[in-house]
Amino acid sequence: MSRFNANNPSAALALIALTVVAGCKHAPSPAAELKAAAQGSAIVETSGGHQVGVTGTSMKDPLVVQVNDDQGTAVVGALVTFRGPAGVSFDPASVLTDSSGQATTAVTLGSISGRYSLTAVTPGKTKAATLDVVETALGYQQRVGSILADKYCNRCHDPESSAERVSNYDNLSVKPHPFTEGDTLNKMSDADLTSIILHGGPALNRSALMPPYGNTLSATDVRALIAYTRAVADPPYQPAGTVYARK
Amino acid sequence: MQPIRKFLSSAWRALFGDPVRAFGIVSLGLLLALAIAPAKEHFSQWHSYQRHYLSLIRDRGDAISLRRRFEPGIHQIWLPELGVVDRCTTCHLGLKEASLADVNQQPFRKHPVVPHSLENFGCVVCHGGQGQATTVVEAHHSERAGEEPILPTRYIESGCGQCHQNSMAGTPQLNLGRNLLTRYGCVHCHSIARPDGTKVLATDHPPSLTHIADKTTRQWIYSWLKDPQAYAASTTMPNYKLSDTDATDISAYLTSTSIPQAGDTATASTKPSATADPSAGPSLYGESFCASCHAVQNAAGNIVGGDVGPELTRIGNKAKPEWLAAWLRNPRIYDATTPMPHYRFTPQQITTLTAYLQGKSDSDYGAGVHLDAANPQQIAHGRKLIVELGCAACHEINGVQKPENFAPELSAIGSKPLAQIVFLPGMEHSLPSYIVAKIRQPHAFGSSVKMPQFALTPAQTDAVATALLALTNRSRSMPDTLRVAAVPETNYQPAGHAGKLITELACFSCHRFNGRGGDMAPDLTWEGSAVQRKWLTDFLKNPNTLRPSLIRRMPRFNLSDGDNKELTDYILAVYQSPAIDADLAPADKSAPDTVEHGRQLYYSKYACQSCHIIDTKTDKGYIGPTLSQVGSRLNSAWIYAWLKNPQALRPGTTEPNQNLSDDDARALTAFLMTLKGQAGRGAK
After folding, report:
1. Alpha-carbon distance B170 to nearest alpha carbon in chain A (angstroms)
2. Which residue out of B154, B157, B307 would a mutagenesis test of the A interface target, given it has the greatest number of A Cβ atoms within 10 Å?
3. What is the pLDDT of residues B259-285, one digit of tens each?
4. CA gap B249, A8 in Å, rounded
5. ipTM for this prediction
6. Chain A interface, mutation test: which of B113, B604, B617, B645, most A Cβ atoms within 10 Å?
7. What contacts B152, CB < 8 A, 6 or more positions away?
8. Would you list the domain boundaries of chain A?
9. Class assignment of domain A42-138?
10. Residue of A nearest to B462 (CA)
11. pTM score of the predicted model
12. Closest CA to B192 of B416, B376, B408, B8
């Protein structure tokens, strides 16, 4: 190869040029294809934020954002680009807003559990407008917890009814804490949560309406339930750090 | 050439001119050669990762203990029974270090919590890839013959499915995939054998087409074949993307070969015996709880209702009125194995319901379809197409035999070598992406591909791919002791006249008895131990619901008194649990203070009112059944045993086992047995 270059530099140049052209043809930048017809100045979330999904899989609902101008009216044909940490993928990653000023993308989260902060960006007239959206991915243990919560807990702890499940929340004289209620649950230690699940509300001087599950759920189940609670807590749960002796 | 030769000879003289110098040069060469191996190791990828790991942990608070647990060199997990030789832990050094949970930088992240240990299961069993490789590319991305890239996280549950043939709570995607394989009829064409040799059996109920002309018109068959989902969005019938001619010819064959049903058929009862009452239609449909099994698409486009039976959104476009009436009269005459119960409707009810269902139609559906009378060429061509497309693999069709092994066997599809796969241009070269593409767009792989296009969502397609990826050679070759077998459906069949009634009423479609049946309604295996005779008789006459928040409910079957007694006797005699000990339960009449103690336990200590209702005015619990008349419904021995351990009597029930003392259980039972309520006072 080096001999070929040395003897015939023009051929080598042609080869490099060809490679570059072929490379461009092969992987066109998706953003380059989209030509923004208009520009907005603000971007707001329509739906699809604050979802809880499973690592490595697509979120149940797409992320929908809307681009507005200074007056707050929807802008049609504005370019929206979605970004996220490594492992997150968007389909499509860049899109023009539709006739109602909305941009829709399907989100697939990475393989690490936890909160993902995603960003939608639209180039504005003076500076780019951005919107941050948080989605949560559950790992194996947390998802086992979410399945158990659906079976044993959510009919009382979730105030929302669905088509398949009528919530019992409103029927209770002492209201249970929804698992997303970080303000309360983040202050409770794992040991207290374990205790209340195993022995019922009276174990912590709370309501007997919460029955004991110590003979129904295994220790693994309880750990999974707590992991799930911690994962969906809003505001986010910050575990107490471990203290080590200095070297 | 002269200068080169001159240069070479002077170089030779300079290096090997005298023996001492030659010896020195050769020794040096040998030393260098000996250094190659250590140098290669020193500059190897895994070595640099290990150095990287040491520098990462150096400044952490627990550096000393992390350092102590670190072992230099190549690590290996060797599990001959699983065929695992994994060196992944050579670079993935923090998998077991709980304190590294905050490190997001691979390869040092802690492994998330899973039920299995690294030492006993290794890595490749779940993640795929080449466990023996010690470079990043070879371990994760290699596509050479017999090798596979790392499995994307979205299919990770396929790893569980290699050993666990049973359904587990922690693997919803795998469970869904396996369910879809049987429910969408994949296994009618593709045979799938589990590693233990048992076949995966279809759970769908593709209708027999032998009397199809009694049921529907040729125009409907044509429209249906063109696009099944246009008729019923939730149908599992795939779209074959047939041309107009092909759909015309298949409909010609099916109608021309259809045999009129003998006996109590459409033709035998064309005379309307009663007039329809249009206002009673919707309430009769509702009271009969048709929606527990059949769905209807509402104005908002949502499909509402059960999925045991076919969707009825446009049933009026499909079913001939006389067939519908005969079907409602007794579905088992047209289809002996239907999951639909024989309702014992009155002639008036049949006429009303037929008229109501006929009204569920869409005037636009199939409006442009005009088919000329079929000629023999068309019929012959229709038969040819039916044979080619394998229609008879699912449906019984006159004059066409069920094909054997119509499509490739999939028992080891999860280990299909990439070298045997023809990928589409631009497609990722991996087995999961091939399987997903093949399910989503089979026709992209060539016009000769016979596989039809199923109406599956992306999430469902991923689930099917997960179930298929679990069918690996490793799963087949591992010792039987390492696998958890699937729990097969039993072939339990109750005997006698009651058994015939249970079949006719299709109790198995919703209830489970002795390991066979559906999961929509309670398991009745021990029902005879649980309930009292009078309550059961009344309930079978008019099943009022026990659970206020229940959406799917039991219909009324208009049983004759004789049949009702037969069924009640059978249930009470046969479905008895050996675990119920009548001696442990309190007597029918308990002391008033025991009852009062029970009442206090109910409302204070155990707060049963959070889930159950006794007094509909004050109690509101929606979760468990209403207990206002539990004393005339259940036997005291059953209540006592249930309170002691609900899961022992009905595995998986949500009522927690509260570990009651014998005294508390007896007092609660005594209190509950005093709740006689009034018949029919159950909460609506």
Report:
1. 5
2. B154
3. 888 765 544 454 555 677 778 888 899
4. 67
5. 0.83
6. B113
7. A56, B432
8. 42-138, 140-232
9. mainly beta
10. A57
11. 0.86
12. B408
